[in-house]
Specification:
By secondary structure, the protein is an alpha/beta fold. It has one domain (75-300): Vaccinia Virus protein VP39 (Rossmann fold, 3-Layer(aba) Sandwich). It is 35% helix and 23% strand. It has helices at residues 2-21, 79-84, 106-114, 127-137, 152-158, 183-191, 207-221, 247-261, 268-275, 296-300, and strands at residues 34-39, 44-50, 53-58, 66-69, 96-100, 119-124, 145-149, 163-168, 193-204, 224-228, 234-239, 276-277.
Length: 303
């Protein structure tokens, strides 16, 4: 099934190339679109604005860290952030949520509107990303929106808190930092989940890397669900220590949530029906990613 879904990768990339050639690929800003540039200890952060959309780019203008429609700040410009809200079908009214990787705060902002009483903790390692989120994307802390500026793995080791939902959306240098992809890290994530909790991870559908990630998530959590983007190369993994709920349970939760709140106009049940791959597969004997061996960059580049 994964190989079938991976055919989307080639199709999306082909369409992207045509759009670039035609000068219409809105994800690629020109220098005239840059409204701010800042150097952090780790990377250059660019803020661009064009056609009513403000974006954050970390390290490169090709990066898609975050985007906001200035006329409708709660609209999801990028498909993957909307897809990540499907985790709401796997838990019942979470009280404590952890978001790893802040960007412009889109994920946290939407989760706040879906679960207004929940306490949300954001962990972001780059202080300049936090500054840009505050200055250009309306991010702010309060008594239920908390922030830690620290490496996520170090922070997780240092806390004893447990969370109903853990969202993994940390990127640096074009992909997830390798130490946030390994079995050892995911075991730490599993330890920090409350009973009945779920982890939701934003990954890609690059074949070699996707297979290794799949094997690693399965080694730590057992069965999991994945959602493959229709208009992007993103893959959202949802897993739980006790195993994922049935498709019927997930659909029922999403339908109830839509009926009660209609969060941000998202078609949660529609995305569930169209993007879910409930039985991902990968070759037998696929190596898992470990602290001793996690060649993420090489796998991402197909080497």
């Amino acid at each position: 099934m994964l190989k079938t879904r991976l055919s989307r990768f080639s199709a999306v990339m082909a369409v992207s190339c045509l759009l670039v050639a035609g000068g219409a690929f809105y994800l690629l800003p020109t220098s005239a679109d840059i409204i701010h540039e800042a150097e952090s200890p780790y990377q250059t952060i660019f803020i661009s604005e064009a056609n009513g959309i403000r974006r954050m780019h970390a390290g490169s203008l090709l990066d898609r860290s975050s985007a906001m429609d200035l006329k409708d700040p709660y609209r999801h410009v990028y498909e993957y952030t909307a897809m990540m809200m499907l985790v709401s079908g796997y838990v019942d009214m979470p009280q404590k949520i952890l978001v790893v990787g802040l960007g412009g705060g889109t994920v946290s902002r939407t989760l706040r509107r879906i679960y207004p009483e929940a306490e949300i903790t954001n962990v972001e390692f780059d202080p300049v990303v936090v500054d840009m989120a505050r200055q250009y994307f309306g991010y702010a802390e309060d008594d239920r929106m908390k922030l830690a500026v620290e490496d996520a793995r170090r922070w997780l080791r240092g806390t004893k808190e447990r969370f109903d939902v853990i969202v993994l959306d940390a990127y640096h240098g074009g992909y997830i930092p390798f130490h946030l992809t390994t079995r050892e890290f995911l075991e730490l994530v599993r330890e920090r989940l409350a009973p009945g909790g779920a982890v939701c991870a934003n990954t890609w559908i690059d074949q070699a890397l996707a297979e290794r990630e799949s094997a690693t998530y399965h080694a730590v959590f057992g069965s999991f669900h994945q959602y493959v983007g229709k208009w992007s190369t993103n893959r959202i993994i949802v897993a739980s220590p006790g195993g994922v709920p049935s498709r019927g349970e997930v659909r029922s939760r999403l339908a109830a949530l839509e009926s009660a709140r209609r969060p941000e106009g998202l078609d949660l049940t529609g995305m569930f029906g169209e993007l879910l791959d409930p039985d991902p597969t990968w070759p037998a004997g696929t190596e898992i990613l470990t602290d001793d061996h996690a060649p993420v960059n090489l796998l991402k580049e197909g080497k």
